[in-house]
Amino acid sequence: MVDLGVEPADCSTGRVVTQVQLHGKHLQHTGVVHAGVVGAMADHTMGAAAQTMAQQGHWVLTAEYKVSLLRAARGQRLECVGVVIKPGRQVSFTEAEVFAIDGDVRTLVAKASATMAVVKAS
Fold it and tell me: pTM of the predicted model, to two decimals?
């Protein structure tokens, strides 16, 4: 996430917001944000949201995730909002929305869902 430039913007129990300033390295050959950037950001943000609800001494690992790309992402930055839908001791369910920010326009570009495994840290 450091290499992509994804940074935390807000955090509370069961909810994390991240953002990334867009540069050429984030774009595919057509000039829109690469789906891999959107997917990685959503996965990371959902995992971070789940981690806020994990018991002390436990880590959250992605067991499965799905990303629906709704439209091409263009703009100055992306913002992702990840939330825990159902926390659990062994498995948590999460969702995320990714928005492209272009000036004052905030456009929903992707929705994601994930199953997060909660495992004891070694």
Answer: 0.96
